[in-house]
Structures are given as structure tokens and as C-alpha cells.
Amino acid sequence: MSMKELLKIKTLGDLKRAGYQTKNIKDELRDNLINSLKSGEEVFKGILGYSTTVIPEIQRAILSRHHINLLGLRGQAKTRIARQMTALLDEYIPVISGSEIHDDPFAPLSHYGRETIAVKGDDTAIEWMHRGDRFVEKLATPDVTVADLIGDIDPIKAANLKISYSDERAIHFGLIPRSNRCIFVINELPDLQARIQVALFNILQEGDIQIRGFRMRMPLDLQFIFTANPEDYTNRGSIVTPLKDRIQSQIVTHYPKDIEISKTITQQEAKISKDQLAMVEVPDLLKNLIEQISFEARESEYVDAKSGVSARLSISAYENLVSTAERRALILGEKSTVARVSDIWGTISAINGKIELVYEGEQEGPVNVAQFLISQAIRSQFINYFPDPERFKRKKEENPYQRIIQWFNANHDLDILLEEKQQDFEKKLASVDGLSELIDLYYKKSSVKEKFLLKEFVLYGLASYSQLNRLSLDSSVLFKDLFSSVFTSDGPENLN
């Protein structure tokens, strides 16, 4: 019978006659995953960088009918993975109409469900629950109580129904029983107090729930997914050992392992409007630089590695990069523009809020650390485009940067305004002796726009390798010879 025909069924009797059979949620997930694997269908769409690591682990856990704990630093798509698991549920399932815990018509758990079927039999009304409504998420915080998750005796309900507190009908169910036949996610599990974690023991293993000494057998049909940050184990709490023992699969997530994957994630997640896309062109070089900032932050001695550096840093920084170029174009009355290396300094505010600094970083200050990370990103990416300047210090071979450096040593400087018109920007770069020749040497076939971006990049790259002096001013970036104004050099150049 097709799903369209099934949805027309409104009573238990009709459901029986249709030959419908229910199954528990873990079998649903398993069966639908098996079908997806056989057909080659992608299950976790948009989850990048996990195809050979995390996703196979999740698939194994689902096939094993396991509860899952996703362990990883912030910004590693743990919650997104959990939410996408609803795609493996059946599109619709039947529930007893009016049941607060989504009773299965063939195996009701609640007093309401059992009584309804006892009274109405095959005339029991059913309704169809869509898989999109079968996902429940709870953020673990220290103020969460057992009553919130499991339930409590409701004295008002007992009084209205004129029943004793020992009657099951006096119970007000908490979030977990109300999530029966659903995927239930508890985020940041270590933040849950130990005594609250203990309340989950029997639900996970035996299906019992206890409410203020009222013990009842209620084999809830749940797929639990927990998320946790390793930092939480020491800073805020821990997962108690018996609970950890009952979570059958613990899967460790990770950050993107290379720039290309990280870049794809950023392009997928960044919120850039159509107007911005039409106005601002962002060269691939700048996209690589944005991603490199996150990679530098994860290795930096100024950043707390235990806290992690979320993928949201790259996403926010990329959005700021586009907005910086867009703002310049709007101010100058330009209909379109190409993002520049200097626009990356507009990403500092995005970087500041995404990194946790250690003591040394706090001493330097968040802005200086952000500037330092940008400089390090430029330094790391520079050798992917041009020869390593360091090698010419050690070897007696012709230095391709020599004419550029000599031009600055001859008492020339270059002051690039952050809001420079394109023609003025190009004119200034063209004035640097040896710069055009260097670009033609390595990128002769590049477009005019690309060549000017590369020219600017060369100056930043040489500064990051201490071949030139770069001064970041309020409204411009000034390039001078290495030995001038050393005492006024900006923050990041002084960080080592």
C-alpha cells in the first residue's frame, strides 16, 4: 500500500486490515540506512570532511542499534549530524490520536492509550506523525531537573481527577517520555548534573522510569544522541561512568583536515546575498587565506587548543571579507569590485569572538592576536604561490624579490588606502619597481585583476617574511623598507 493510501486510514481497525506493521525507532533507522547504502543515496548531506571518518562510524552505530555520543570540539557539526538523522526515519508513523507520548496503536504504553483501545477497540482514532516532528533537542544546563526530563506527580491533576498520587494518571510526563518514538538529543551532556544523569540509567538500559518513588514499567522507544565537548570533562563536569557505559557508541568528530574541505564548508554555510555576489568578486587566493586563519588559530600558542576553533570563524570571517569589499565599493560609488588582501583586516571582529585565548594571548590582547593570525596565514599561504623568501638568504641564487626590496630601500614607500579607488590602487602597485616583472615571471597568463591582487599579496608576503616593513594604520596600510620606523611597527609583526 502506498503512503498516500495509508494516510487516508483513520482508525486502528483499518490499519490492521491494511496489514500495517510498526517497528521500533532503531529498526526504522537501521532498515532505512540499509536501503540508502544499497542505493548509493547520500544520507548526511552537507556534512563535509567526514566521509571516511565520522560518517562510517555513525552508520555502524545505527546498524548496531546503538545510542550515540558525539564527542568533539565546538563547530564540528555534531548537532547538524543529529538533526539529519531524521531523514532515516519512516516518513509517517501512526499514533493514537490525543496521546501525549505518541502511543503506538499496536503497543500502547500510557494509561490513556491502553484505556482508549480497551474502550474503543478497532474504532480507536489514529493520526499520522511526520518524521520532521520526531526530533527533540534539549540543551543540558545545570538547572535541568529530573522533573523536566522524566516527569513529576501533578497534585492539581490528581485533585481534579480525584485520584491518589499512586495512580499513574497523576503523573505529568517530562520531556523524555513525551519524546517517545523520537530521536532525543541532549547537547553538552557533561553540563548535566550527576544526579540528573543517574536518572537516565534505566531509561537507556531497562526502559524503567521512576518518579518520586512511583515505579512503573514503560519501555520507551527512543534513539538517544548525546553531544559533548572534551573540554567540558575538566572545566564544567563529566559524564558519569555508568551512563557512559550505557551509551554504546562514542564517536569522535574533528575539524576539516585540509583547506579545500574547509573552503567548501565556508562557501556552503556563509550567508551572502545575491546583491553581494553580484557586487563583490572574491578570488580563490583570498578564500584560501580566510581558511588558513582558522588553521593557524588551531596551532597558535596564543589560542586555547582545548577550547577549539570553530568552523564558524572561517564562515564569519568570509562574510566580513565580502562586506568589507562591499562597503568600500558603496562608499566609492563603484558598481562592482574585487576583494583585496587589505580587506582581510576587516575580518578582525569576526576572529575576536571565535577564539579563546590562553594567558599569553590575553596579555597581547585579542586584536593583536587576530592581526598576528592573519599575518601567519599570509606567511603560510605565500609559499603556495611564490618561492620561499627564506631560501634566498641561505643560497647564492638570484633573488626574484631583490628589485622590489631595493625599490623600498631607496627611500620609497607605498601607502594603500583601505578605501582606495581601483584605478588609484592599480596605479600605486604598478609604481613598485620589479613587482610587475615578478608577476609576469610566475603568472604571465593571469587576468589583469588577478595580477593586481597578486602584486598586493607579494607585498604582504614579503612583510610576513620580514623582507619589508608593514604598518597598519587606521585608514591605510603602509609598506616601507625593513629598517625604517621599526619602533612603530604594528602589533602582529612583534608577535613571535
Set down the secondary structure blueprint.
Blueprint: H1 3-6, H2 12-17, H3 25-39, H4 54-63, E1 68-71, H5 78-84, E2 92-96, H6 111-120, E3 126-130, E4 135-139, H7 146-149, E5 151-153, H8 155-161, E6 171-173, E7 182-187, H9 194-198, H10 201-205, E8 208-211, E9 214-217, E10 222-228, H11 232-235, H12 241-246, E11 249-252, H13 259-269, H14 274-279, E12 280-281, H15 284-299, H16 311-332, E13 337-338, H17 348-352, H18 359-364, H19 366-382, H20 391-394, H21 402-409, E14 414-417, H22 422-430, H23 435-443, H24 448-464, E15 468-472, E16 476-481, H25 491-494
Parallel strand pairs: 1-10, 1-11, 4-7, 7-10, 12-13
Antiparallel strand pairs: 2-3, 5-6, 8-9, 14-16, 15-16
Helix pairs in contact: 13-15, 13-16, 15-16, 15-19, 19-24, 23-24
Task: Provide structural commentary.
There is one protein chain. With 496 residues, this protein is of the alpha/beta class. The chain folds into 2 domains: 3-252, P-loop containing nucleotide triphosphate hydrolases (Rossmann fold, 3-Layer(aba) Sandwich), CATH 3.40.50.300; 259-494, no CATH class. The protein is 44% helix and 14% strand. The chain has 25 helices and 16 strands. The strands form 6 sheets. It has a 5-stranded parallel β-sheet, with helices on one face. The chain has a 3-stranded antiparallel β-sheet with strand order 14-16-15. Strands 2-3 form a two-stranded antiparallel ribbon. Helix 13 crosses helix 15 (284-299) and helix 15 packs across helix 19 (366-382). The chain is elongated and about 100 Å long.
